[in-house]
Write a structure and sequence with these properties.
Elements: H1 8-52, H2 56-77, E1 83-84, E2 92-94, H3 100-113, E3 121-124, E4 129-132, E5 135-136, E6 147-151, H4 152-155, H5 160-172, H6 180-197, H7 200-210, H8 214-264, H9 266-291, E7 298-299, H10 304-317, E8 322-323, E9 326-327, H11 331-334, E10 342-343, H12 354-364, H13 383-395, E11 405-406, H14 409-422, H15 454-457, H16 460-484, E12 492-494, E13 497-499, H17 504-539, H18 543-574, H19 583-609, H20 619-630, E14 636-637, E15 640-641, H21 643-680
Parallel strand pairs: 3-6, 7-11
Antiparallel strand pairs: 1-5, 2-3, 4-6, 8-9, 10-12, 12-13, 14-15
């Protein structure tokens, strides 16, 4: 691999990071110096008081003073003894004897990158690869061997060349001396974080000392006040160091990408980056599927064929090409539903966004030395055994109440596909309705017939209009937050032009005008859609059924907003339960809940007796809601909440939201399915 020149941006961020470290060191040494002086004064003062008149009272005061000084000094040094140990309970270690081909593959990569071979290699289940190590304060000064974690769902979703690029990226973080500064900033970050937030054991020790006597407790309390002041100073330093670290971290990602491109070429890293979101979504889908099956004691012996199926299934649903049994995602697919033109640099982000990484890799344009298109699973000696072992480890943490039943991949595919179809709209509509609703129009408002075709109405351009309008609405909300000071930033870009917060008043009206124009065009298209299907239904003698379907949906749609508003009010009114609240305030809030419960319970009663909602009200839901309606619950009686009563209410609130949301979805789907039916008749 050729030597990689460190970019000017990387150098700039490195200098900022070094300066932030220097700032911390100077501040920390000043705090230590003051703490040592303070401890000496406390010790001298305590000793002097005891010597002045040795009594129990003076001894307690003297010990209290000494404890105050020592606690402050110990607080500033406690991070030295802190070790950050990575949890390995979900990992399975593998050896070269078990996986010789994989280890040889990794050895070749570390040789090209010019870094050390991992101390240990572990397998996990997820879509991920990472280098990790246990760290402590001494990590800043002593060399530490790193471990490699490989997600089996990752190798399930990439080719050999893509896997090579991903591992080269991970090793690239440690390939040059210039990257060492990142480790220093990271460790300084950990030190300050420890001093600010990881204080359970320290507070426990302080409480133990305070429990000796009330006089000593007084001085311990004073030391904690002093420590709060120290934390205020450190919090300011932490913000500076953390921003420097995040900025440097983003540059390190670009650097590691360049290392990877030099090893495997630009294209394999690009294609893997664009696919990983789909792979991760598919993995989480399978995990969530089996989370819902815990009560039935159902699990798979091997989760990864199911992960592969979901990934390819979702790719097919989104019309993505499949090459060598791997979906191919390009930038236009990746950004299809993200039409925002607003760019705010997230100073707290540790990684640049995928689009920026892809653009940088395309600019490098390093050719692929050897495009190895086989899936990365070929690197394992016996992938089926590995996958089953990792699956067993993944589900070992789950407690089942009965004998576990193994679900075969074929059963999963059948159930998953059925559930997916029941919970999504037909792909014939090109995702037009995924984030918008159909609109009902008076059939007598049409003066002439439409000549537009189905493909015209649901074209990519029509879909783009919908998602562009959604993006502009969100952009207006965000820019309004910037204008009002709710979002504090120095500047932002919109459509390639830089704006300051003061210029928000100029930009917002422009976007509102554009949004109004788009909504008008969408309304014209929606009216044409209504007319197209009306004409189609008339030609097939289904006009009455078509209009009835639309009216039924329209009634549910109009009811939903009012129903959802009641849900929001109940959620807002009960939010205080999650926080420490004075008794008087609790009682006032409970009275507010009682007032809101009257219309809320009326709505629930209406739903339980409304024929239209019976399809989404299960026996279990009905039983619980009737229990809630049957009496007035007492949620609080000093000094305690009645948790059982609160649980009845909160479950009822969530069940109510499920009923109205599910019914709205079902009515929308019924209408769209009817459109599909008359289209295909």
């Amino acid at each position: 691999m050729q030597a990689i020149t460190v970019s000017e941006s990387f150098k700039k961020m490195t200098i900022k990071a070094i300066l932030s470290i220097c700032l911390f060191i100077v501040t920390y040494l000043a705090l230590i110096f003051l703490a040592v002086i303070f401890t000496i004064i406390c010790a001298y003062g305590g000793f002097a008081i005891i010597m002045l008149k040795p009594t129990l009272l003076t001894v307690l005061v003297g010990v209290g003073l000494l404890a105050m000084g020592i606690l402050v000094l110990f607080f500033l040094g406690k991070f030295i003894f802190k070790k950050n140990v990575v949890d390995r309970s979900h990992l399975i270690e593998i050896t070269a004897t078990q996986e010789p081909q994989l280890f040889a593959f990794i050895q070749k990569i570390v040789g090209e990158v010019k870094t050390d071979f991992p101390k240990k290699i572990y397998l996990s289940a997820e879509v991920n690869a990472s280098v990790f190590y246990d760290s402590s304060f001494l990590s800043m000064f002593l060399p530490i061997k790193k471990n490699l974690q490989i997600g089996v769902a990752l190798v399930n979703a990439v080719s050999v060349s893509e896997f090579e690029a991903i591992l080269a990226h991970e090793f690239g973080h440690f390939s040059q001396r210039s990257m060492k500064v990142g480790s220093y900033v990271y460790n300084v970050n950990q030190v300050i974080y420890n001093l600010l937030y990881e204080n359970d054991s320290f507070e426990s020790k302080a409480n133990s000392i305070a429990s000796v006597h009330s006089y000593i407790a007084f001085f311990v309390g004073l030391s904690l006040r002093i420590i709060q002041g120290i934390q205020w100073v450190l919090r300011k330093i932490y913000d500076i160091v953390n921003i420097s670290y995040m900025s440097l971290s983003r540059e390190m990602e670009f650097h590691a990408d360049e290392v990877a491109a030099n090893v495997a070429g630009s294209e394999p890293l690009i294609t893997s980056l664009l696919r990983l979101d789909l792979a991760d979504e598919s993995y989480k889908t399978v995990i969530n599927y089996y989370s819902d099956k815990i009560s039935e004691a159902v699990k798979p012996s091997n989760i990864f064929p199911q992960h592969q199926f979901v990934m390819n299934f979702l790719a097919s649903e989104n019309k993505l090409p499949n090459v060598n049994n791997l979906p191919q995602v390009n930038l236009s697919n990746y950004n299809r539903y993200n039409k925002t033109k607003l760019v705010i640099t997230n100073q707290w982000a540790s990684h640049p966004n995928t689009e920026d990484r892809v653009a940088a890799l395309q600019k490098l344009n390093i050719s692929v030395k050897e495009n190895k298109t086989d899936k990365a699973i070929v690197l394992f000696k016996n992938i089926d055994v590995v996958q089953q072992k990792v699956t067993d480890n993944l589900f070992a943490q789950v407690t089942y109440n009965e004998e576990v039943k193994d679900e075969k991949t074929e059963e999963f595919i059948e159930t998953y596909t059925k559930n997916y179809r029941a919970n999504t709209f037909d792909t014939i509509f090109n995702c037009y309705y995924d984030n918008k609703n159909p609109f009902y129009f008076d059939k007598d408002s049409f003066e002439s017939t439409t000549d537009l075709t189905f493909n015209d109405l649901y074209s990519d351009n029509a879909v783009d209009m919908v998602y562009t309008s959604i993006a502009i609405e969100r952009d207006i909300q965000t820019i309004t937050q910037i204008k009002n000071g709710d979002l504090t930033i120095k500047s932002f870009d919109y459509d390639g032009v830089k704006y300051s917060p003061k210029q928000c008043d100029e930009l917002i009206p422009v976007l509102e005008t554009e949004l109004a124009r788009l909504k008008k065009e969408i309304e014209v298209n929606d009216k044409a859609i209504f007319q197209y299907f009306l004409q189609l239904a008339q030609s097939k003698g289904l006009e009455t059924e078509y209009l009835n379907q639309y009216k039924a949906y329209d009634e549910i749609d109009k009811s939903y907003d009012e129903q959802f508003e009641i849900y929001v009010k109940m959620m807002n009114a009960t939010a205080f339960i999650n926080y420490n609240t004075p008794f008087e305030v609790i009682e006032q809030n409970i009275n507010t809940i009682y007032e809101l419960e009257k219309p809320f319970k009326e709505q629930i009663n209406k739903l339980l007796n409304d024929e239209r909602y019976q399809s989404v009200i299960t026996d279990e839901i009905r039983e619980h809601l009737n229990k809630y309606l049957a009496k007035v619950f007492v949620y609080f009686s000093r000094p305690d909440y009645d948790n059982e009563s609160l649980n009845v209410m909160m479950t009822s609130i969530h069940q109510y939201n499920y009923i109205i949301g599910r019914k709205f979805f079902e009515s929308k789907k019924e209408l769209l399915d009817f459109k599909v039916k008359i289209t295909k008749q």
